[in-house]
Known about the structure:
The protein has three domains: 82 residues, no CATH class; 483 residues, Myeloperoxidase, subunit C (Orthogonal Bundle); 285 residues, no CATH class. Helices cover 35% and strands 10% of the residues. The protein has 34 helices and 14 strands. β9 and β10 form a beta hairpin. The structure holds protoporphyrin IX containing FE.
Amino acid sequence: MSVWVTWPSLVKLGTLGIYAGLITLALERDVLFKNNLFDVDNLPAANANITCDARSQGARTEDGTCNILANPAEGSVYRRFGRNVDPTVTHGETEADTLLSPNPREVSNVLMARGEFKPAPSLNFIAASWIQFMVHDWVDHGPNAEDNPIQIPLPAGDAFGSGALSVRRTQLDPTRTAAEAGKPQTYRNHNTHWWDGSQLYGSSKETNDKVRSFVDGKLKINADGTLPSEYLSGKPITGVNENWWVGLSMLHQLFTKEHNAIASMLKQKYPSQSDQWLYDRARLVNSALMAKIHTVEWTPAVIANPVTERAMYANWWGLLGSGPNRDKYQDEARMLQEDLASSNSFVLRILGIDGSQAGSSAIDHALAGIVGSTNPNNYGVPYTLTEEFVAVYRMHPLMRDKVDVYDIGSNVIANSIPLPNTRDGDAEDLLSSESPERLWYSFGITNPGSLTLNNYPNFLRNLSIPLVGNIDLATVDVLRDRERGVPRYNEFRREIGLNPITKFEDLTTEPVALANLKRVYGNDIEKIDTLVGMLAETVRPDGFAFGETAFQIFIMNASRRLMTDRFYTKDYRPEVYTAEGLAWVENTTMVDVLKRHNPQLDSSLLGVENAFKPWGLNIPVDYENWPAQAKQDNLWVNGALRTQYAEGQLPVIPPVDVGGLIGSVLWKKVQTRTDVAPVGHEKAMHPNGVMAKVKFIPVAGNPYTGLFQGADSGLLRLSVAGDPAKNGFQPGLAWKAFVNGKPSQNVSALVSLSGQGSNYNFFANELSQYVVPEVNDTLGTTILFSAVSLKPTLLRVDDFAKVAQNGQAVTTPKAPTQIYFVPKSELRSRFSTAAHDFRGDLLTLTAGTKLYDVYATSMEIKTSIIPSTSRTYAQQRRSSAVKVGELELTSPLIASAFGDSGVFFKHQRHEDK
Ligand code: HEM
């Protein structure tokens, strides 16, 4: 039997299976609450010195006291870390016993050191900086003790040379009493334990005073948007500025700005309120917003499983929540309720439990939500974060080795900065020189490291700490857990209700990792360090960036942070937050925050629903309803720009893939109504080209309707059918005109079926959507296209006439039968006719260039089997055509993978007029 949990497999059973999984988690969480919450502090003594004043009834205090009025020290700064494992097993390891066995530096060298960077493809780098930002709200063991450091012998051949590596010990708890002698060591949290934004606001009045402006409830911020910084270190002055790098600079600046935006809004609504009143409310709102973003955005990105997605949603809103942002799972939750109420409940049968358990508070929480519930509930154990919680959040492998900076929209690295050069004072300089929006974009499109073995960034394994010297953080991570009495991996699992592993192979079957694990731990699974075991777990629930051991700790603490806090339960109400403040929390997402303070990111964030997943081309279900320009921006910025080929890296143009022009592909071409190619669609013809944004400027008074009266938002793709050396030079264009709230209209045009032979000048000839069938059509495409159309060489433009760009339908449409794209005279002779790569020519054309005059005729398209007669008809039509407008580039032409394989231009057949 597998040692791993089984709830993920319930997902296969459909919606009710997902809910069976969710209830399993809820019930397990209840068991954990009963068995795994341990308080090791002396709160009555601490309470004696605290008076909760009138302000603290409706505001968070600086030091976290008075959240629980009846037990005011609970969760405040300098309270001890609690435990999630029985304290009797938490005696810290010492040099006299197992602290140095196996050698933690050896663990770091063999099992942690990163060879090649292993990315976590489902997340972006914002997710990494975000969790460190959160950790800095939650926990801090304070500065390490200077005396009597731990000396770790350096293994033979170590990169640090010979001798010993010295690591300072965790600062001891000065509040220990004589009565506690012989009991396991305790450590104090130098932050408040609450989810109260203390990384921004500090955990003491002294720090808090430094960050406040004392005007209109705002925090201090410089005129250029940067935070005031410390004179010597250059690091910003903020609640917590330890372990600093540019990712933290970005987040602290962003949420300081968000605080000030909230304060401005409140000042407007409540102009006569004091600075203190405004500040207190803005802090409540900003902290709750960060907690909500973490709960319903970050976490579902990191553990992206249908069960946990719903569980996290339920934590904030409850599955039965009502209101515009709260009703996502209502229908499913009703289905679950009905099932649970039925005598033959599918879910209860799967779970093997009876109805009495189904009514437990765990399930009520899932259905009704935690946030806003009537009273805080600490399950009888004072709220603290725990040593085990700290242990599972040692997620340093998330860090990349460098920050790659891109221009907004681009996928070409503009600047690559080694992570160490983004630290401390350099972080703020970098934020200013590269600009926050470029960095956000760059973080949005790059991945963090994955939480696996041998993926620990080497810069953190040789990290310079001011006044301390160089440390190996991987060694320190391993040492800390041992020092603080966090049980080793297998015992840790037993203690938190998980099956222990029985062999190394349970963790991984990857041969090198397996051999290294066995060697370092002397074939003894009980010696595996918790951090190593967690990173080694290869069996993970689908979508999970970390494994189930960390998750078990996570489900307790993530819920407790909310359910024990008065400001997320009883006092999560308008009288405390203000109505406007509550609405701010409820209606704001991370994408909104990013956009509010970086309007330049609007197009990069189009369609991005979760800011922590890699930003890319997203086509959400409501895409078609978007305004024309938003659709154009999305495909341009997130499709074309993001996949632009680097200079000198244009792909080789292959010959036309006649075999690829099989009926099914062609059917897609005429049937699929989409702007982005269906998965697996390949351009068998015209595989390579360039694309730009384009607008159609109409000739006033032209006789045609709809888009012929103007189309400001479009894409124009210019390509050749295939390798000109093999197929002759066959230029073609495809134009997509976007329409507000309706599907785009598309048309393609060619010079002729066989092209223009050895003339490589793209603008030598006119193109049209109708070309005369040719007897000597070298490719046989006419025959192929006849599989799907009676008039295979004709594309209709009737639909262009039926709708205006604002989405309005035209009552009496008038469409031409044939249109001609006539290259502007100044372009006709600009480029060489000799053999060369045409894309080089087109890439020189910039925004504002007019490419084509568009001519149109309404003459009927007649053909004859006598080619010369057909040609005469064609000439007659051409001479009757009048100019109806011009196509002008609104961006440069660029070559991109999206242009070559992603964008889709539907063909309108003769039959579909
Ligand atoms: C440039 C990035 C980072 C640097 C320089 C850094 C540095 C450090 C340092 C120096 C410590 C204290 C080591 C000690 O106990 O002596 C630490 C602890 C820790 N770090 Fe990081 N870190 C970084 C990123 C992260 C990230 C992305 C996470 C993700 C969750 C993280 C989570 C933690 C945790 C949970 C601790 C333990 C805190 C405690 O013992 O109270 N760190 N880090």
